[in-house]
Amino acid sequence: MDEEISIINSETRNEKIKNFFIKNKKKIIIILSVIILIIFSYFIYKDIKNKNKIKLADKYNYSTINFISGDKTKVKKELIEIINQKDKTYSPLALYFLIDNEIITEKNLINEMFDAVISNNKLEKEIKNLIIYKKGLFNSDFATENDLINILKPILNSESVWNSHALYLMAEYFYEKNEKFKSKEFLDKIISLNKVNLQIKSEAEKKLIRDFSE
């Protein structure tokens, strides 16, 4: 008896499933089609993205090779185009190449290029902080106190691995301006940090003993 009931229940369940598929045939086909389309679209997107990455890498390599070989006609334009692509690898590299080789010397334009790279949300947090630090380092020779602090603020107000570097940069900035009290404040902050670059801490301690001990 139990076996017969079990068979009847099984047949009823199978019938319900069959009826469900018949009744919702169109919906099921549409849903499956959408899922398949999404999967294909994803792989197509990844393929296009990889091809674009390779093209960008080739463009960067050709530009730097042309610069080194002496053919500098299009180098500046091509490197700026790479920066504006906001690629997390080649945009920073293009920026550094422009600066290191003095292809661009206009301060405002260089800062615009820094901002274009920093605004890229694809960058890892500490890579972005490194670029912010480099922007501060670049501006430290001519920026006002407020401008330099504003540039470095995202690092100074964080526990970034570049925090101690930014503090030391500010200490050096004020020391060069003969504002030793402010310089000492930043050096003291480095010493008090829980997470600190040990080499920077050592340099800060040496500077405090050498230049601030009575």
User: What's the structural domain tally?
Assistant: 2
Averaged pLDDT: 84
Helix tally equals 10
Element-level helix/strand string = HHHHHHHHHH
Tell how many strands the DSSP assignment holds: 0
Gross morphology: flat
Q: Which structural class should the secondary elements be placed in?
A: mainly alpha
The main sheet comes to: none
Low-confidence stretches: none
Gyration radius over CA: 30 Å
Helix content: over 70%
Beta-strand residue percentage:
under 5%
Termini separation (Å)? 102 Å
Index terms:
10 helices, mainly alpha, 214 residues
Structure commentary:
The chain contains 10 helices and no strands. With 214 residues, it is mostly helical. The mean pLDDT is 84. The chain folds into 2 domains: 10-123, no CATH class; 144-214.
Short description:
The protein contains 10 helices and no strands. It is mainly alpha-helical.
Helices and strands in order, then pairings?
Layout (H helix, E strand, L loop, with lengths): L1 H22 L1 H45 L5 H10 L5 H11 L6 H12 L6 H15 L5 H12 L6 H14 L3 H13 L5 H15 L2
